[in-house]
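Researcher: I'd like a structural prediction for the single chain below. Treat it as a standalone chain; there are no partners to consider.
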Amino acid sequence: MVTNYTFAEWISNALSSPIVSSIFGILAPFLLGYKDTPTIIALIVIGIVIYGVLPFMPTFLRIARGNRDIFFSKIEERPRSFFFGILVYILSYFTFIVMGLTYYAIFSLTSLIIAFLALTITLKWKVSIHMIGFCTPLTILAIISKGFFTPTLLLTPILMWARVKTKAHSWAQVIVGTFLGIIATYFSMTILISAFTLQL
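Model: Treating it as a single chain, here is the predicted structure.
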């Protein structure tokens, strides 16, 4: 029998940051208007690796070591989980600039800004990193799709419920994580697109 708790755990895993960010990596080339198949394939691989895999290596290592606490429930363990992702975003930003992939550079810089904000908050308070990691790529998708993917953010309430149901967070923590993931991402993307004089 599937209990509410089991269902909540399933939702948490299905809507985790690596999965949602990988979906973002797959969709981004198409939304940015790339037509050449080899280029699209290359960008999909790059997007999945940079946004869906590398930033979460600390989590994958915990799984490999048999640690089931993949969401870093203890607040004192959380800062360490950010450092590798921050390094990935910094290096990928400069790499994309050199490659002329300006939109991808903006994605990395936005992710870096959000990661720094989340790290700053989590040093003092257990904000929901899960909600931030869920809302950030979906907000970027909504922006670059000119609103087409905005309805995906309607999944936010059910993930909020799941995180509270599994006792991973309080309602205050998931609400703040959600607002940070959506609002900070929206303003970061908007400002950076304007700064780079790009038009969607």
